[in-house]
Amino acid sequence: MAKIIVDAFGGDNSPLEVIKGCEMAIRKLGTEIILTGSADKIKKCASENNISLEGMKIVHTDDVFDIHDEPKEIIKSGKNTSMAIGMKLLSDNKGDAFVSAGSTGALVMGATFIVKRIKGIKRVAPAPILPADRGSFILLDAGANTECRPEMLVQFAIMGSAYMERVMGIKKPKVALLNIGTEETKGRELETETYKLLQKSGLNFAGNIEARDIPKGECQVVVTDGFTGNIVLKLYEGMGSFFSKKMKWLYSGIGTVGALFSINKIKAFKKQMDYRETGGSALMGVKKPVIKAHGSSDAKAFFNAIRQAQKFADGKVVESIENYVKILSEREQTE
Amino acid sequence: MAKIIVDAFGGDNSPLEVIKGCEMAIRKLGTEIILTGSADKIKKCASENNISLEGMKIVHTDDVFDIHDEPKEIIKSGKNTSMAIGMKLLSDNKGDAFVSAGSTGALVMGATFIVKRIKGIKRVAPAPILPADRGSFILLDAGANTECRPEMLVQFAIMGSAYMERVMGIKKPKVALLNIGTEETKGRELETETYKLLQKSGLNFAGNIEARDIPKGECQVVVTDGFTGNIVLKLYEGMGSFFSKKMKWLYSGIGTVGALFSINKIKAFKKQMDYRETGGSALMGVKKPVIKAHGSSDAKAFFNAIRQAQKFADGKVVESIENYVKILSEREQTE
User: Fold this and answer.
1) In whole angstroms, what is the distance from residue A306 CA to residue A299 CA?
2) Which of B215, B231, B265 sits opposite A231 (nearest CB)?
């Protein structure tokens, strides 16, 4: 069974919702959990809320990474935050994956310098799985690298494909390059150059995708630079909230009879759009699986993030990426 | 009364829906219309569909700008397309504004080289008005200039503010810089430099806006480069379609009783989200008002685009921008 390291002090609802989520994972999935953070506080919180800590091992530290700290603080020596310790444990093979709802910037920094990048991979990219009309898709880079070179975007495509194939079970996922038009001449130099590289990458490259087609879900891997990706991710969230609000307002008038007719559909739709269902963002490009859970995660979201981390580890995504990078670099040398 | 030049052969539904929209504008607003395009085809279409051409003057040309042509074709001599002729008429002061549903790229090119830019303005930017939870906002650049310098974004802010103030009647519109975080150190060099310039611009600068807050509508002018702006515009449209589809599906189950309760709300919401209501994108930075109507515009959308063009001309937006640019350049010289 997978052993998952969890930062007990990341996110707005820590440690209570973290511990609850871990308890669910132990009960439902048989996961082994290593919690990082203040042992006293964890035990106190668990006992006050009648949560069993059975199956959880605590690695104690009093220090917590503050969400307002500069990301680079995470790698300063002597800072034994619950996040840094979690990543050190992961790096030392004490667990199979790490989950934290702390600062994305710090996680990317820590993943890069503590857990370290996969050989040949240039950048670590946070990659959320977003809901679409048909299925879901992985978006990367969702915010870490605001300036990218074409070869980085190709690596994002490789990593996203490996994830969708091995974790989500999609064979030969369709890869699309986010652009302002479908023609290969569209966009900035970044897009036109990336387009050429993706064409000969051996991936299932479907060409450019315009932003209006993203929600259709016809492509399962959408690649772009971290600035644009962050805009897409947040607009996706913002539009979701906007429409949820509007839908509530619309439904406030339909009366009980109408609501009865549609309650199951509404539930299904809400579930489809709920970020808590997908878990969190995978940090792609790191030697071992790291999952960034949403900052406002509740127990269910932590449970799903842990499940995702377990699938990430079991799916041998990292090995698959290593393999692909090796093949690609060998091919480049013979060209 | 304003005299509006309209390209009869732009968009998917030309010339029928164009002529219908013009007829509505003449009847409801008392607009004078100059149509550009094949006189025979316009007259035949009007007579077949019982549309009166009273109040419309036709400036004949057989040539039409093909949507697949390269934008620069618009300024090649000898190409007297309905779009090029419309812009020449505008430049020659034969009308107060120009409306076309043709290619955005060609319109931007034609506006820049035929109608010409306002003195001191570096780039022409298409600027759609998008619906938000509270009111609406103008987004620029929505796709023309994929690479921008900070001073261009400041000019976009000036132009957007002038439009929202003089056409939409919003006093001191709030200007926001689209970014991946609210702190002024966030983003690329483009954003950090633009932030500093906007702070001392004299505009009502509200700081950075994250994409998730755009749909709330708390800022009325959102500025960004043309690549990012195009992604935002199209994702906005795409998410809108996605949710409309979902809403139909949800409502298909509520039954007649429920639907009766909410029909007015649904109508109000649909109207709020309907691009046909706002008209089109204003081409900001041009010496005279040019409106790019949506490619799939119907009569109602053309009517609204003509009304928008009229307000654009009546509001003296161009004069307001000229004035602001002058003040700003004088201030720079004394600094």
Assistant:
1) 10
2) B231
Q: How far apart are CA B58 and CA B22, in angstroms?
A: 12
CB contact under 8 A, B259 and A262: no
pLDDT (tens digit, 9 = 90+) per residue, A158-171? 999 999 999 999 99
pLDDT in tens, B134-157: 899 999 999 999 999 999 999 999
SS3 string, chain B, reads CCEEEEECCCCCCCCHHHHHHHHHHHHHHCCEEEEEECHHHHHHHHHHCCCCCCCEEEEECCECCCCCCCHHHHHCCCCCEHHHHHHHHHHCCCCCEEEECCCHHHHHHHHHHHHHECCCCCCCEEECEEECCCCEEEEECCCCCCCCCHHHHHHHHHHHHHHHHHCCCCCCCCEEEECCCCCCCCCCHHHHHHHHHHHCCCCCEEEEECHHHHHHCCCCEEECCHHHHHHHHHHHHHHHHHHHHHHHHHHCCCHHHHHHHHHHHHHHHHHHHCHHHHCEEEEECECCCEEEECCCCCHHHHHHHHHHHHHHHHCCHHHHHHHHHHHHHHHHHHC
Q: Mean pLDDT of all residues in chain B?
A: 92
Q: Is B182 on the interface with A (CB under 8 A)?
A: no
B72 and chain A: CB distance < 8 Å anywhere?
A: no
Q: Residue B247, Cβ neighbours under 10 Å: how many?
A: 18
Read off the pLDDT of residues A39-51 as tens digits, 9 standing for 90 and up.
999 999 999 999 9
* Element containing residue A100 per DSSP (H, E): strand A97-100
Backbone dihedral region of A70: left (phi > 0), alpha (psi from -120 to 50 degrees) or beta?
beta
When CB atoms are compared, the residue of B238, B255, B259 closest to A212 is B238
Residue pair A104/A266 in contact by the 8 Å Cβ criterion: no
B208 touches chain A (CB under 8 A): no
pLDDT of residue B259: 61
A256 pLDDT above the threshold of 70:
no
ipTM: 0.92
Chain A CA closest to residue B267: A250
| Residue B235 burial (C-beta neighbours within 10 Å; 0-12, 13-18, 19+) | buried
Closest-approach residue (CA) in chain A for B68: A183
pLDDT tens across B158-189, in order? Answer: 999 999 999 999 999 999 999 999 999 999 99
Distance of CA B95 to the CA centre of its chain: 18
**B23's tokens:** 């007829």
**Rounded Cα–Cα distance for residues B228 and B225 (Å):** 6
Q: Angle at the Cα of B11 (from B6 to B17), degrees rounded to 5?
A: 70
Contact B141, B121 (CB under 8 A): no
B185 touches chain A (CB under 8 A): no
Edge to edge, what strands does the sheet with A136-140 contain? A129-131, A136-140, A221-223, A175-178, A205-209
The model's pTM is 0.93
Q: What is the nearest CA distance from B136 to chain A, expressed in angstroms?
A: 13
Q: Distance (Å, rounded) from C-alpha A92 to C-alpha A58?
A: 16
Give mean pLDDT, residues B128-137: 92
pLDDT at A208 over 60: yes
Residue-level pLDDT at B333: 78
Are B123 and B141 in contact by the 8 Å Cβ rule? The answer is yes
Q: Does residue A180 sit at the B interface (CB-CB below 8 Å)?
A: yes
Task: Give me the sign of the Cα torsion angle A138, A139, A141, A142.
Answer: negative
What DSSP letter does each residue of A258-317 carry, written as one string?
A: HHHHHHHHHHHHHHHH-HHHH-EEEEETBSS-EEEE-TT--HHHHHHHHHHHHHHHHTTH
